[in-house]
Amino acid sequence: MIPYGGCGGWQSGCSSDAYVSKTLRSADAENYSAAGMIPYRKKDGVVELLLCREKPWNSFINAYDPLAWNVFGGKRVTRQERSTHVTAIRCFMEALGEVEGAPTGEALQEMMADSFSMWYPLGKFALLMVEVKDGSLDDFPAKFAASKEANPHEEFRILPMGVKKWTKQIESLEWVPGSSLTPSPKFDVSDLLGNVLKISKFVDFLTGTLNPDEAWPQDSFPQPAFPEGGSEMKGKSKGKGGYKGNGKSKGKGGGKFMKGGGKQMGGGDMMYPQKGLQMIQMQPPMPMYSAPTAAPPFQQGSEEMQRQMYGEQLYVLVLQLSPTPYLAQKITGMLLELPTEELMLNLTDQQELQRRVKEAIEVLKEDGITS
């Protein structure tokens, strides 16, 4: 069994039933489509969840839904993220990593050692319940409010490279006791959270009937596997989260991965880097290639397929100019947002590519993604 992630393929065979367990079933861990997390704490014997009041984006009506309690989560980056833990941490950091006092990815990893999972089959969504035992997030709602007041969040902003970055429409964070969610929520909830609240074992957890420590004793299950090494993204000295980011919610509890203009592309494994962590290298070391003398032909009828191919070719070139494979992936995603004519120029003009890469690195520095 592979309890904490798989090859990232899209084979069939995912569970059709919702369930709560220490680890996901193997097929679900490998083939999930989206993932998220809910930090929780036990205060005076009562379970409290850290939820956001958010206006989730509804892709069916192409508009925001009303303000509701929601989880932190989003879509998996196809062919790049191998683990629900990786997706969940990325989504959390994209939404809240810029808040002063936000936990680093490394800190979230440590919290996840004793997490348990829920599977919601509609949307192939994996939800991780992460206990915060040290009280480090007790005042996080207040810190978020202070950050929002000092730096009001806009729907999106345009980076110097012309890349549009979306922000989640989060109004506030709050610790919500289980009694405010069951038997009926005291405030509107997103469709995703509403459906999760129909899972009987999750209700048992909220009411205290299910004790995770007793149901799944510590050391009875393997620890989640995370990438080793790498230090591209270090937590800031004042406790600010090391990974700044924002993602636009797509669907209930979903997310569109566009942090730093990143657009998913084939090849590579895009993990959230943090101090003391390394990147997983998905492919054998690549030989040094030179730019092609002419750009590959562009076929109007298959724009997405063509951009996928361009992205793979561009990544090879950017890798030679980037400090790390992770940053090469981020920069490639940013370049793929350029108009087709400019994209072609980067594939054929080495000087133009060097200029764009340098510009992209400066943008990532401003966002705190690299130093």
Quick description:
The chain is of the alpha+beta class and 371 residues long. Helix content is 29%, strand content 16%.
Structure write-up:
With 371 residues, this protein is an alpha+beta fold. Helix content is 29%, strand content 16%. It has helices at residues 26-31, 84-96, 105-111, 140-150, 191-196, 200-207, 212-215, 303-319, 325-335, 340-348, 350-366; strands spanning 19-21, 34-43, 46-54, 57-58, 63-64, 68-70, 72-75, 116-120, 125-131, 156-158, 164-166, 170-177. The strands form three sheets. Strands 1, 2, 3, 6, 7, 8, 9 and 12 form an eight-stranded mixed β-sheet that branches. α8 (303-319) packs antiparallel against α9 (325-335), α9 (325-335) crosses α11 (350-366) and α10 (340-348) crosses α11. It is globular. 44% of the residues are buried.
The biggest sheet amounts to: 8 strands, mixed
Radius of gyration: 21 Å
- The low-pLDDT segments are 1-11, 229-301
What is the percentage of strand-forming residues? 15-25%
Number of helices: 11
